[in-house]
């Protein structure tokens, strides 16, 4: 598994940078385009790390396969992140010194890891994540050779 992650690290890094740029561009225009990009591309980096050549296509296939789970998770994520933003603002006002930013960064790090794990589980439960997409035979063979 670690060998497969190393083999796909470049694709993962490129997709991550591309998504950050797209999200920031959307947020610069207005909040809604940035949130739409976030909502429509939650599993792209997971698909890239999984070795998918068309990570965006695999992401959209996963969303089509589990639209209910995607919608519930996206709505839950927006509520939790909104609450986290409010908590971060309160922490900034009420906790002074270096402790306030530390708590905020640790809190958002835990939330990010939790949601990325949730998106990865949803991705893995779909045909896109289980290797049923065209062209997945080569990736599955490479991963079984690496094991």
Give the overall pLDDT as a whole number.
Answer: 86
Could you give the order of the helices and strands? HHHHHHHHH
Q: Which class of secondary structure composition applies to the elements?
A: mainly alpha
Our count of helices gives 9
How many strand segments? 0
Q: How large a portion of the residues is in β-strands, by DSSP E?
A: under 5%
CA-based gyration radius: 17 Å
Task: Report what the structure shows.
With 147 residues, this protein is mostly helical. Helix content is 84%, strand content 0%. It is built from 9 helices and no strands. The protein has helices at residues 2-7, 9-29, 31-40, 44-49, 55-65, 67-94, 99-124, 127-130, 136-146. α6 runs antiparallel to α7. The longest helix is centred in the middle third of the chain and has 28 residues, at 67-94. The chain is globular, with a radius of gyration of 17 Å. Residues 133-147 have low confidence and may be disordered.
């Amino acid at each position: 598994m670690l060998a497969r992650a190393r083999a796909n690290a470049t694709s993962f890094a490129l997709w991550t940078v591309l998504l950050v740029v797209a999200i920031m561009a959307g947020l610069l225009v207005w909040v809604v385009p940035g949130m739409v990009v976030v909502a429509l591309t939650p599993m792209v980096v997971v698909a890239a790390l999984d070795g998918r050549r068309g990570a965006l296509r695999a992401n959209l296939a996963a969303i089509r396969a589990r639209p209910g789970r995607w919608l519930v998770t996206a709505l839950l994520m927006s509520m939790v992140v909104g609450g986290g933003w409010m908590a971060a603002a309160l922490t900034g006002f009420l906790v002074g010194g270096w402790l306030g930013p530390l708590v905020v960064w640790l809190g958002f790090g835990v939330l990010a890891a939790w949601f990325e794990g949730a998106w990865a589980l949803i991705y893995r439960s779909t045909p896109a994540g289980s290797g049923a997409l065209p062209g997945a035979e080569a990736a599955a063979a490479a991963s079984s050779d690496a094991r």
